[in-house]
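Exercise 7b. Backbone tokens:
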């Protein structure tokens, strides 16, 4: 069996905090985001903000986090997303798994 040089395989772990605006509360947005995050292997959380937006923390492989951010624009079937603001976040904030709370 040939040896694999794991030093050549780079998995960049990133964390992004996203603020999602639009009709994103009371439309199963957080539960659907959790399902998608788990499918992608992304950890973090989705939680309602008092002003009607949803905050999503997404941590994991850079490609998986980017895929979740693209999904955030689609959201649940009843959601209507108008904006997804994204900024870097600290991995220390990420829970194990993905929590929709």
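Sequence design result:
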């Amino acid at each position: 069996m040939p040896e694999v040089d794991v030093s050549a395989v780079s998995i960049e772990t990133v964390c992004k905090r996203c603020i999602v605006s639009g009709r994103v509360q009371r439309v199963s947005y957080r539960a659907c985001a959790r399902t998608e995050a788990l499918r992608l292997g992304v950890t973090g959380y989705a939680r309602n903000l008092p002003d009607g937006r949803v905050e999503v923390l997404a941590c994991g492989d850079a490609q998986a986090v980017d895929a979740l951010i693209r999904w955030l624009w689609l959201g649940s079937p009843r959601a209507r997303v108008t904006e997804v603001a994204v900024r870097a976040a600290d991995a220390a904030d990420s829970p194990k798994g993905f929590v929709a709370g």
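Instructor comment: The two ends are 46 Å apart (CA to CA). Confidence is low (pLDDT under 50) at residues 4-10.
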